[in-house]
Design brief:
By secondary structure, the protein is α+β, with helices and mostly antiparallel strands. The longest helix has 29 residues. It has two domains: 163 residues, Jelly Rolls (Sandwich); 93 residues, Homeodomain-like (Arc Repressor Mutant, subunit A), CATH 1.10.10.60. Strands 1, 2, 3, 4, 5, 6, 7, 8 and 9 form a nine-stranded mixed beta sheet that branches. The radius of gyration is 20 Å and the shape is globular.
Length: 279
């Protein structure tokens, strides 16, 4: 797949990102201020933010996209983007690729994702770093990113539709808004991996009540927030020990377990064996 790379630097102005672009394009941006229209495309677009914050407006609603997040915008949806000046310069990239056609049911609004919580999101973050600062040829990285996006995008959309259908709210607009807040809660749990967090702390970070968080998080992601978070920290500690990066005691302290014995006990309960090095 041939992909055209475009750079936007400085102030965002003019008729927009995405209105007169080629079919397969990746726009790399490093912007200090400004606003522009975002033209409608015949397929999904992905807007990834690496630093700062960008504000997207579609259908009368504002979708803030902070560092480490990306927005999937459905086909045919035009809107506006503004650089949130209070957060400093914003850098990121926008993907408009024909491979983003999907057989999933149509979505009625943009969906927010945390890059750390999906294979595609991790690929976006890694590829942006490589194209922004790394020694790798940008064109080659862009082609690899396009190919990887083609492999993982459909799975991401199917998962998101499953999450939407699992929510009890009757109005679609309510389900979309609740899923956005649950995504923020999930991202918070991934970001804070050095200690347990209270339910109220996660709810405040996501802007949702503790009641809705507890009920809806489990419906979407299969586990209560506290259990999900403990699993994240346990798997990270396990990987650090297996790669011989840390001892059991070091991993326990790094990922919020009381001590090495507590971590080993939790590991045995979850995986059936004690933590061991594999290298």
């Amino acid at each position: 797949m041939t992909v055209q790379l475009i750079d936007l630097v400085g102030t965002l102005t003019g008729g927009g990102m995405g209105q007169t672009r080629p079919p397969n394009v990746i726009v790399m941006s490093n912007l200090s201020r400004g606003a522009a229209e975002t033209g409608a495309r015949g397929h999904f677009m992905l807007k990834y933010v690496a630093a700062g914050k960008e504000l997207y407006r579609y259908g009368g609603k504002t979708f803030p996209v902070a560092a480490g997040q990306f927005l999937a915008v459905p086909p045919g949806m035009a809107g506006e983007v503004e650089i949130a000046h209070q957060s400093g310069a914003a850098s990121g990239m926008c993907l408009g690729l024909k491979c983003l056609d999907t057989q999933s049911a149509p979505m009625e609004a943009p969906l927010l994702f945390a890059a750390s919580c999906s294979t595609l999101g991790q690929m976006l973050a890694r590829s942006h770093r490589q194209m922004a600062t790394g020694p790798s040829p940008r064109a080659r990285v862009a082609e690899h990113l396009a190919a990887g996006t083609a492999r993982h995008f459909e799975t991401l959309m199917e998962e998101a539709l499953g999450h939407l259908s699992a929510l009890a709210a009757s109005r679609p607009v309510t389900r979309y808004d609740l899923l956005r807040k649950l995504t923020l809660a999930r991202a918070y749990l991934h970001d804070v991996d050095d200690r347990p967090v209270a339910l109220g702390e996660v709810a405040a970070a996501a802007g949702v009540s503790q009641f809705h968080l507890l009920r809806s998080f489990r419906a979407c992601f299969g586990l209560p927030p506290s259990t999900y978070h403990r699993r994240i920290r346990l798997e990270a500690a396990r990987a650090a020990v297996e790669r011989a990066e840390m001892t059991c005691t070091q991993a326990a302290l790094r990922y919020g377990f009381a001590d090495g014995a507590s971590f080993s006990h939790a590991h045995r309960r979850a995986f059936g064996t004690a933590p061991t090095r594999k290298v």
